[in-house]
Design a protein that fits this description.
Structural class: alpha/beta
Strand order of the largest sheet: 1-2-3-4-5-6
CATH class of one domain: Alpha Beta
Mean pLDDT: 94
Bound molecules: zinc ion
Low-confidence stretches: none
Helix content: 25-40%
Radius of gyration: 20 Å
Number of strands: 13
Distance between the termini: 58 Å
Shape: globular
CATH topology of one domain: Metallo-beta-lactamase, Chain A
Length: about 325
Amino acid sequence: MGSSAPDAGVHRLELPTGFAVGPVNCWLIDDDPLTLVDTGPNSGTVLHALERALAEHGRRVEDLGRIVVSHQHMDHLGLAGVLAERSGAEVCAYAPLAPWLAEWDAAMEAEDRFAEDLMARHGIPAEVRYALRSMSRVMRGWGAPVTVTRPLRDGDELPFAGRTLHVHHRPGHSPSDLVLHDPRRGLLIGADHLIAHISSNPLAARRLDGSGERFPALATYLDSLRATREMDLALVLTGHGEPVADHRALIDERFAGHRRRAGKIVRLLAERPATAYELAHALWGNVAITQAFLTLSEVLGHTDLLVAEGRLREETDAEGVTRWVSVR
Ligand SMILES: [Zn+2]
């Protein structure tokens, strides 16, 4: 590709993850400092794959001068600590995420407890919760603590010898999602903010403010998509799968998909009140246990919005289980 290509000097390193999502895209920015956006999960296999991928570009781990963590999910950050230690690279991430990344195990433990309470409250059966909990314990090792040396905030700039990347906080898929914008080339390194082949699940998660409160994932995500839709972009480099050339068309598809789903939820609740688990079951049938938290997240994203619109209210019974009730 010539130097006028929007992705000039930005190379995709596709690494295995072992997760259902498939391989993760890490982005090597061949500039000064040599920069890696996302690292893949923490495993020897992934590290070797990364070393081979860097070697294809004539680079080694030790050459890295900067690592950017796009967001808090372990398929994107697991190796950051190892790579920073070997290279001395600075580590950049959304500033409020820094304490979370420093205390990875404690953060994951708290996140699991939050998830378990949330699932119980929304009607997910105990056997599913226990299965998810033990799975999550096993998976935790795909992440690892890392010290953020350059905390980033919305509106910051990351300077390089040959470009300046603008940092935007675009939460929704997770509370800590950052995207990196190269306005000169119309290039956005978007990680999981926008993915072509799957809709980026706005996952239920705790706010990063330490309150322990649930972050309104879908409402926040739709606002973030609106902000990205306003941008003039030639290409979005994604965290999984192929780059996105027409971000506005894809965002409009996502908006339409969410509107359809909201409509279905309203119709289901017009028949009778239901827990989020019952709604997920009505929408997707019997999903794999591993999908139970994902589908719960999706339903709660919608009930948040519908409550805000005054179309639903919640009712919590004596056992502490919440049902959604249609408001007419
Ligand atoms: Zn993610």
